[in-house]
Request: fold
Amino acid sequence: MITLLSTLVSFLAGGLPRLLDFFQDKSDKKHEITLAQMQIERELTLKKANLEIEKQIEEIRTDQIQINADVQMAQAAVAEKQALFAHDIAIGQGASQWVVNLRASTRSAITYGMFLMFAFVEIFGFAYAFWTGVQFTVAMDNLWDDEAQTILASIVSFWFGSQAFAKK
Reply:
């Protein structure tokens, strides 16, 4: 009986390191799985942060491209204006002074002409209404209507509005 018992204990004692290795291996694998999960979570967090950073960088690049496009458009507009001025100067070379002065006053002469024609129509329309006995309110409604106001506003806003902003 002791022989059988010692054989059994010896057999079990021989397998004890393997049994301990089994439990140790199980514990190591559990620890490795936990570390792997933590590493995966860390990588996902970093990737998410990198995606947000890349998104912000892309937005900055997009804004920079838009700003560059706006600058190029502004430079093209300035270059176009300079080319038009150079062309006007080139056309005027060799011409007599009165032709150069006439060319320079074309836009303002047209504007003055339109304003004088507008004033003529309004003043003589009012005088005609006065001489024929048309009531003042009726004459003003017919002479100073929306279209007349629009014409005068266009002339004034062109010369005092857009020209002032163009110089800035």
